[in-house]
Write a structure and sequence with these properties.
about 55% helix; about 80 residues; elongated; mainly alpha
Length: about 80
């Protein structure tokens, strides 16, 4: 094994570790945001107030992420026909 190979492998390992750490941090921040949102929702509900704030969405969602469709997505109202 050459020194350059060793260095490249070491660098790739560090990159993967940094990506995993960043992902975990982002996930923790997202869960904290949802928890705060839910606390505000429960508080508003307890006061009898309307709560129309949307649920926080995670940042950096890839748009090409496939979304599983269910049969409900293709429901047709047969009563109109």
């Amino acid at each position: 094994m050459f020194l350059s190979d060793w260095y490249s492998e070491r660098q790739q390992k560090r990159i993967k570790e940094a990506e995993a750490e960043g992902f975990a941090k982002g996930l923790a921040e997202y869960y904290a945001a949802v928890k705060d949102w839910n606390n505000r929702r429960i508080e508003a509900e307890g006061k009898g107030e309307d709560f129309d704030e949307p649920v926080p969405i995670p940042q950096n969602i890839q748009e090409e992420t496939p979304v599983e469709q269910t049969d409900d997505d293709y429901a047709v109202d047969d009563s109109i026909a």
